[in-house]
Backbone:
Protein backbone atom coordinates (compact mmCIF):
# COMPACT_ATOMS: atom_id res chain seq x y z
CA UNK A 1 0.00 0.00 0.00
CA UNK A 2 1.02 3.61 -0.55
CA UNK A 3 0.02 6.90 1.05
CA UNK A 4 -0.07 10.33 -0.51
CA UNK A 5 -0.55 13.65 1.28
CA UNK A 6 -1.48 17.05 -0.08
CA UNK A 7 -0.56 19.58 2.59
CA UNK A 8 -1.60 23.16 1.97
CA UNK A 9 -2.19 26.45 3.72
CA UNK A 10 -5.90 25.74 4.17
CA UNK A 11 -6.24 21.99 4.59
CA UNK A 12 -4.40 18.66 4.49
CA UNK A 13 -5.67 15.65 2.55
CA UNK A 14 -4.32 12.10 2.75
CA UNK A 15 -5.15 9.03 0.66
CA UNK A 16 -4.25 5.35 0.83
CA UNK A 17 -3.93 3.61 -2.54
CA UNK A 18 -3.14 0.09 -3.63
CA UNK A 19 -0.34 -0.83 -6.10
CA UNK A 20 -2.65 -0.02 -9.04
CA UNK A 21 -3.38 3.44 -7.64
CA UNK A 22 -6.93 2.61 -6.56
CA UNK A 23 -8.03 4.70 -3.59
CA UNK A 24 -8.80 2.69 -0.47
CA UNK A 25 -9.30 5.44 2.10
CA UNK A 26 -8.97 9.16 2.65
CA UNK A 27 -8.63 11.69 5.46
CA UNK A 28 -8.66 15.43 5.90
CA UNK A 29 -7.39 17.86 8.54
CA UNK A 30 -6.35 21.48 8.93
CA UNK A 31 -3.42 23.26 7.23
CA UNK A 32 0.12 21.85 7.19
CA UNK A 33 2.10 24.69 5.62
CA UNK A 34 4.61 25.20 8.40
CA UNK A 35 5.33 28.73 7.24
CA UNK A 36 1.72 29.64 8.00
CA UNK A 37 0.82 27.57 11.08
CA UNK A 38 4.24 26.52 12.45
CA UNK A 39 5.85 23.05 12.44
CA UNK A 40 4.02 21.76 15.53
CA UNK A 41 0.53 22.46 14.20
CA UNK A 42 1.54 21.23 10.76
CA UNK A 43 2.67 17.89 12.21
CA UNK A 44 -0.56 17.46 14.18
CA UNK A 45 -2.66 18.05 11.07
CA UNK A 46 -0.54 15.65 9.03
CA UNK A 47 -1.02 13.06 11.77
CA UNK A 48 -4.78 13.56 11.83
CA UNK A 49 -5.21 13.26 8.08
CA UNK A 50 -3.01 10.14 8.02
CA UNK A 51 -4.90 8.48 10.88
CA UNK A 52 -8.24 9.07 9.17
CA UNK A 53 -6.97 7.66 5.87
CA UNK A 54 -5.50 4.54 7.50
CA UNK A 55 -8.69 3.92 9.45
CA UNK A 56 -10.87 4.38 6.38
CA UNK A 57 -8.68 1.96 4.40
CA UNK A 58 -8.67 -0.53 7.29
CA UNK A 59 -4.96 -1.15 7.08
CA UNK A 60 -2.18 -0.90 9.62
CA UNK A 61 0.95 1.25 9.19
CA UNK A 62 3.20 -1.77 8.62
CA UNK A 63 1.35 -2.49 5.36
CA UNK A 64 2.49 0.84 3.86
CA UNK A 65 5.47 0.32 1.57
CA UNK A 66 6.12 4.02 0.92
CA UNK A 67 4.46 7.36 1.44
CA UNK A 68 4.90 10.81 0.01
CA UNK A 69 3.81 14.35 0.76
CA UNK A 70 3.37 17.42 -1.39
CA UNK A 71 3.79 20.27 1.06
CA UNK A 72 3.19 23.97 0.64
CA UNK A 73 6.07 25.78 2.31
CA UNK A 74 8.77 23.52 0.85
CA UNK A 75 10.08 26.24 -1.41
CA UNK A 76 13.87 26.39 -0.91
CA UNK A 77 16.79 24.37 0.42
CA UNK A 78 16.50 26.31 3.68
CA UNK A 79 13.12 24.63 4.24
CA UNK A 80 14.63 21.16 3.96
CA UNK A 81 15.74 20.68 7.61
CA UNK A 82 12.33 21.71 8.95
CA UNK A 83 10.44 19.49 6.50
CA UNK A 84 12.76 16.54 7.18
CA UNK A 85 12.22 16.89 10.93
CA UNK A 86 8.45 17.13 10.44
CA UNK A 87 8.29 14.07 8.19
CA UNK A 88 10.51 12.04 10.51
CA UNK A 89 8.28 12.93 13.45
CA UNK A 90 5.13 11.94 11.56
CA UNK A 91 6.76 8.69 10.44
CA UNK A 92 7.81 7.82 13.98
CA UNK A 93 4.55 8.75 15.67
CA UNK A 94 2.41 7.07 13.00
CA UNK A 95 4.59 3.93 13.08
CA UNK A 96 5.06 4.08 9.32
CA UNK A 97 8.13 1.99 8.55
CA UNK A 98 8.16 2.44 4.77
CA UNK A 99 10.29 4.93 2.88
CA UNK A 100 9.07 8.51 2.47
CA UNK A 101 9.72 11.62 0.43
CA UNK A 102 8.45 15.18 0.46
CA UNK A 103 8.20 17.61 -2.45
CA UNK A 104 6.55 20.96 -3.03
CA UNK A 105 2.77 20.69 -3.32
CA UNK A 106 2.96 21.94 -6.91
CA UNK A 107 5.08 18.91 -7.87
CA UNK A 108 2.54 16.51 -6.35
CA UNK A 109 -0.27 18.35 -8.13
CA UNK A 110 1.55 18.02 -11.47
CA UNK A 111 2.23 14.33 -10.90
CA UNK A 112 -1.40 13.64 -10.13
CA UNK A 113 -2.95 15.86 -12.77
CA UNK A 114 -0.82 14.58 -15.67
CA UNK A 115 0.09 11.15 -14.24
CA UNK A 116 3.77 12.10 -14.23
CA UNK A 117 3.83 13.03 -17.94
CA UNK A 118 5.24 16.22 -19.54
CA UNK A 119 3.07 19.32 -19.54
CA UNK A 120 1.93 22.10 -17.28
CA UNK A 121 -0.29 22.48 -14.28
CA UNK A 122 -1.75 25.63 -12.78
CA UNK A 123 -3.19 25.72 -9.27
CA UNK A 124 -5.38 28.31 -7.68
CA UNK A 125 -6.57 27.78 -4.14
CA UNK A 126 -5.68 30.03 -1.26
CA UNK A 127 -2.37 30.49 -3.13
CA UNK A 128 -1.42 30.08 -6.78
CA UNK A 129 1.46 28.50 -8.68
CA UNK A 130 2.18 27.03 -12.11
CA UNK A 131 4.63 24.23 -12.86
CA UNK A 132 5.82 22.82 -16.18
CA UNK A 133 7.85 19.67 -16.79
CA UNK A 134 9.39 18.60 -20.10
CA UNK A 135 10.24 15.17 -21.49
CA UNK A 136 13.76 15.35 -20.06
CA UNK A 137 12.46 15.80 -16.53
CA UNK A 138 13.42 19.48 -16.40
CA UNK A 139 10.96 21.79 -14.72
CA UNK A 140 10.16 25.42 -14.08
CA UNK A 141 7.62 27.11 -11.87
CA UNK A 142 6.04 30.54 -12.05
CA UNK A 143 4.59 32.51 -9.15
CA UNK A 144 3.90 30.69 -5.89
CA UNK A 145 5.70 33.61 -4.23
CA UNK A 146 3.22 33.90 -1.38
CA UNK A 147 0.41 36.32 -0.68
CA UNK A 148 2.63 39.33 0.04
CA UNK A 149 4.40 39.42 -3.32
CA UNK A 150 2.73 36.88 -5.60
CA UNK A 151 -0.01 34.25 -5.82
CA UNK A 152 -1.75 36.18 -8.59
CA UNK A 153 -5.12 34.68 -9.43
CA UNK A 154 -5.39 32.93 -6.06
CA UNK A 155 -8.25 33.01 -3.59
CA UNK A 156 -6.32 35.45 -1.44
CA UNK A 157 -5.62 37.68 -4.43
CA UNK A 158 -9.26 37.65 -5.53
CA UNK A 159 -10.50 38.30 -1.99
CA UNK A 160 -8.07 41.17 -1.48
CA UNK A 161 -8.97 42.75 -4.82
CA UNK A 162 -12.66 42.40 -3.96
CA UNK A 163 -12.21 44.16 -0.61
CA UNK A 164 -10.12 46.90 -2.22
CA UNK A 165 -12.80 47.47 -4.85
CA UNK A 166 -15.43 47.67 -2.10
CA UNK A 167 -13.42 50.27 -0.20
CA UNK A 168 -12.75 52.29 -3.34
CA UNK A 169 -16.47 52.37 -4.06
CA UNK A 170 -17.20 53.37 -0.47
CA UNK A 171 -14.80 56.30 -0.75
CA UNK A 172 -15.96 57.35 -4.18
CA UNK A 173 -12.56 56.46 -5.68
CA UNK A 174 -13.99 53.69 -7.81
CA UNK A 175 -17.20 52.50 -9.47
CA UNK A 176 -20.13 51.29 -7.42
CA UNK A 177 -20.22 47.57 -6.77
CA UNK A 178 -22.27 45.07 -4.79
CA UNK A 179 -19.00 44.03 -3.15
CA UNK A 180 -19.35 46.95 -0.73
CA UNK A 181 -22.61 45.53 0.58
CA UNK A 182 -21.11 42.05 0.85
CA UNK A 183 -18.08 43.38 2.73
CA UNK A 184 -20.34 45.08 5.27
CA UNK A 185 -22.46 41.92 5.61
CA UNK A 186 -19.45 39.66 6.21
CA UNK A 187 -17.16 41.88 8.29
CA UNK A 188 -19.29 44.84 9.35
CA UNK A 189 -19.29 48.35 7.95
CA UNK A 190 -15.67 49.60 7.80
CA UNK A 191 -16.50 52.87 9.53
CA UNK A 192 -18.55 51.33 12.32
CA UNK A 193 -18.18 48.95 15.23
CA UNK A 194 -17.23 45.42 14.25
CA UNK A 195 -16.04 46.46 10.79
CA UNK A 196 -13.58 48.98 12.19
CA UNK A 197 -12.27 46.44 14.71
CA UNK A 198 -11.85 43.82 12.00
CA UNK A 199 -9.74 46.19 9.89
CA UNK A 200 -7.58 47.05 12.89
CA UNK A 201 -7.22 43.34 13.72
CA UNK A 202 -5.68 42.46 10.33
CA UNK A 203 -2.16 43.39 11.45
CA UNK A 204 -2.44 41.67 14.82
CA UNK A 205 -3.39 38.22 13.57
CA UNK A 206 -1.92 37.63 10.09
CA UNK A 207 -3.04 33.97 9.97
CA UNK A 208 -6.69 34.82 10.61
CA UNK A 209 -6.41 37.82 8.30
CA UNK A 210 -5.23 35.52 5.51
CA UNK A 211 -8.21 33.22 6.08
CA UNK A 212 -10.71 36.07 6.19
CA UNK A 213 -9.42 37.72 3.03
CA UNK A 214 -9.25 34.39 1.18
CA UNK A 215 -12.79 33.57 2.27
CA UNK A 216 -14.05 36.77 0.66
CA UNK A 217 -13.10 35.34 -2.74
CA UNK A 218 -16.34 33.33 -2.61
CA UNK A 219 -18.28 36.58 -2.21
CA UNK A 220 -16.53 37.99 -5.28
CA UNK A 221 -17.41 34.85 -7.26
CA UNK A 222 -21.08 35.02 -6.23
CA UNK A 223 -21.39 38.75 -6.95
CA UNK A 224 -19.74 38.26 -10.35
CA UNK A 225 -22.18 35.44 -11.12
CA UNK A 226 -25.03 37.90 -10.52
CA UNK A 227 -23.58 40.24 -13.14
CA UNK A 228 -21.57 42.77 -11.12
CA UNK A 229 -19.05 44.23 -13.62
CA UNK A 230 -16.41 45.09 -11.00
CA UNK A 231 -16.39 41.56 -9.60
CA UNK A 232 -16.42 40.16 -13.13
CA UNK A 233 -13.32 42.16 -14.03
CA UNK A 234 -11.53 40.80 -10.95
CA UNK A 235 -12.23 37.21 -12.01
CA UNK A 236 -11.26 37.93 -15.61
CA UNK A 237 -7.95 39.32 -14.39
CA UNK A 238 -7.39 36.29 -12.16
CA UNK A 239 -7.77 33.90 -15.10
CA UNK A 240 -5.41 35.97 -17.21
CA UNK A 241 -2.83 36.02 -14.43
CA UNK A 242 -2.99 32.23 -14.06
CA UNK A 243 -2.54 31.82 -17.81
CA UNK A 244 0.51 34.09 -17.78
CA UNK A 245 2.05 31.96 -15.05
CA UNK A 246 1.63 28.60 -16.74
CA UNK A 247 2.68 29.97 -20.16
CA UNK A 248 5.83 31.42 -18.59
CA UNK A 249 6.66 28.07 -16.96
CA UNK A 250 6.08 26.16 -20.22
CA UNK A 251 8.27 28.54 -22.18
CA UNK A 252 11.10 28.22 -19.69
CA UNK A 253 11.22 24.44 -20.23
CA UNK A 254 10.70 24.87 -24.00
CA UNK A 255 7.56 22.74 -23.99
CA UNK A 256 5.22 24.95 -26.00
CA UNK A 257 4.21 22.74 -28.93
CA UNK A 258 0.67 21.58 -28.13
CA UNK A 259 1.30 21.24 -24.40
CA UNK A 260 -1.24 19.60 -22.12
CA UNK A 261 -2.19 21.88 -19.24
CA UNK A 262 -4.25 20.82 -16.24
CA UNK A 263 -5.97 23.30 -13.94
CA UNK A 264 -6.99 22.57 -10.37
CA UNK A 265 -7.66 24.10 -7.00
CA UNK A 266 -10.71 25.42 -5.18
CA UNK A 267 -10.92 28.65 -7.19
CA UNK A 268 -10.74 26.93 -10.56
CA UNK A 269 -13.26 24.40 -9.29
CA UNK A 270 -15.84 26.98 -8.23
CA UNK A 271 -15.34 29.98 -10.52
CA UNK A 272 -16.29 29.28 -14.16
CA UNK A 273 -15.41 32.87 -15.11
CA UNK A 274 -11.82 32.36 -13.96
CA UNK A 275 -11.61 29.09 -15.91
CA UNK A 276 -12.98 30.69 -19.08
CA UNK A 277 -10.56 33.62 -18.83
CA UNK A 278 -7.68 31.21 -18.22
CA UNK A 279 -8.58 29.13 -21.26
CA UNK A 280 -8.95 32.16 -23.55
CA UNK A 281 -5.65 33.67 -22.45
CA UNK A 282 -3.85 30.32 -22.67
CA UNK A 283 -5.02 29.70 -26.24
CA UNK A 284 -4.16 33.26 -27.24
CA UNK A 285 -0.58 32.79 -26.03
CA UNK A 286 -0.15 29.14 -27.09
CA UNK A 287 -2.74 28.30 -29.77
CA UNK A 288 -1.98 24.59 -29.67
CA UNK A 289 -2.35 24.19 -25.91
CA UNK A 290 -4.87 21.68 -24.62
CA UNK A 291 -6.56 22.34 -21.28
CA UNK A 292 -7.36 19.00 -19.63
CA UNK A 293 -9.07 17.79 -16.50
CA UNK A 294 -6.70 16.43 -13.81
CA UNK A 295 -6.34 12.65 -13.95
CA UNK A 296 -5.80 12.38 -10.19
CA UNK A 297 -5.79 14.56 -7.11
CA UNK A 298 -2.58 16.11 -5.70
CA UNK A 299 -2.69 13.64 -2.80
CA UNK A 300 -2.86 10.76 -5.29
CA UNK A 301 0.00 12.44 -7.14
CA UNK A 302 2.07 12.33 -3.96
CA UNK A 303 1.29 8.62 -3.65
CA UNK A 304 2.40 8.12 -7.27
CA UNK A 305 5.73 9.82 -6.51
CA UNK A 306 6.15 7.65 -3.40
CA UNK A 307 5.58 4.60 -5.61
CA UNK A 308 7.79 5.92 -8.47
CA UNK A 309 10.23 8.48 -7.03
CA UNK A 310 12.15 8.70 -10.32
CA UNK A 311 9.24 10.73 -11.68
CA UNK A 312 10.21 13.69 -9.49
CA UNK A 313 11.71 16.33 -11.82
CA UNK A 314 15.49 16.28 -11.53
CA UNK A 315 15.71 19.95 -10.56
CA UNK A 316 12.98 20.00 -7.89
CA UNK A 317 13.73 19.79 -4.16
CA UNK A 318 13.18 16.29 -2.83
CA UNK A 319 13.40 15.65 0.92
CA UNK A 320 13.98 12.10 2.11
CA UNK A 321 15.08 10.45 5.35
CA UNK A 322 18.71 10.89 4.17
Residues:
Amino acid sequence: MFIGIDGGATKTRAVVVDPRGERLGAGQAGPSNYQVVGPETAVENLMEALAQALEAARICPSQVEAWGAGLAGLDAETDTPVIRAMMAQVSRRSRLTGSWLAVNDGVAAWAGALEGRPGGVVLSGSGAIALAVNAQGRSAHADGWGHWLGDEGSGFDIGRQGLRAALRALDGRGPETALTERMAAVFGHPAEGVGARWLAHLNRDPVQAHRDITRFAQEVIQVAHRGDPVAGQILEGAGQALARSVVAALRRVQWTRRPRVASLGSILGHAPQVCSALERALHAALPGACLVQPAMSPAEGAALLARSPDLVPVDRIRVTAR
Summary: The chain has two domains: 2-113+297-320, 116-294. The chain has 13 helices and eleven strands.
